[in-house]
From TrEMBL:
InterPro entries per record: Ccc1_fam
Membrane-traversing stretches: 70-90, 125-147, 154-175, 187-206
A GO molecular-function descriptor: iron ion transmembrane transporter activity
Protein name in UniProt: Vacuolar iron transporter
Pfam families given in the database record: VIT1 (PF01988)
Chain coiled-coil ranges: none
GO annotation, biological process: intracellular manganese ion homeostasis
């Protein structure tokens, strides 16, 4: 019988489209995870700034309801900035450090002591939270710091806070891929409620002589 010569062709992995896709898939997934983590950090920063804005503006409006002195209003806002930033930093440090302890325990249990990439950073998270809160709190402080008129000062603080609330709400919605208009309106109304309640209750208590 005549022998048949068989020729076998070996396709390199690089020339195989499915292999190339398989090789690229981890890189694409890592990039997607990195983008997701960055979006979460930015969204947390926007929320922190929103907290600083609402709490400080509400505090200043409450003090302004019972005292027309600009210095008292600004000092109360500055005290709120410091206290809020410290509270945010400490809370975030404790929370992220607890998460770090859990992940380190899991890594140790699996015996992968060298697996340290991507671990939470408590100090970085604490500083970011404090900075975000302080950034939001500076909006009403700057708005009220250069105005002497009592009524004008209250109006400017409320107006500046309203504009910043819409900006922060839309930014958070954009990062979370939510409708901008609805999110901005929700944040704005929430800020109005907080400032209005604080002003109204303090006005009531002040008129009652408490």
């Amino acid at each position: 019988m005549a022998s048949h010569n068989e020729t076998k062709l070996t396709i390199p992995a690089a020339a195989n489209p499915s292999a190339a896709l398989t090789l690229d898939r981890p890189t694409m997934e890592d990039a997607a995870d990195d983008m997701s983590q960055r979006a979460q950090w930015l969204r947390a920063a926007v929320l922190g700034a929103n907290d600083g804005l609402v709490s400080t503006a509400s505090l200043m409006m409450g003090v302004g309801a019972v005292k027309a002195d600009a210095r008292a209003m600004v000092l109360s806002g500055f005290a709120g900035l410091i206290a809020g930033a410290c509270s945010m930093a400490i809370g975030e440090f404790v929370s992220v450090h607890s998460q770090l302890d859990v992940e380190l325990a899991e890594i140790k249990r699996r015996g992968a002591d060298k697996e340290v990439a991507g671990l939470p950073r408590p100090m970085q998270a604490a500083m970011a939270s404090a900075l975000a809160f302080a950034t939001g709190a500076m909006v009403p402080l700057l708005a009220a710091g250069f105005i002497r008129g009592y009524r004008v000062r209250l109006g400017v603080v409320a107006a500046a806070a309203s504009v910043a609330l819409v900006v922060f709400g839309c930014a958070g919605a954009a990062l979370g891929r939510a409708p901008l208009g609805r999110a901005g309106a929700r944040v704005l109304v929430g800020g109005w409620v907080a400032m209005g309640l604080t002003f109204g209750l303090m006005k009531l208590f002040g008129s009652a002589g408490l």
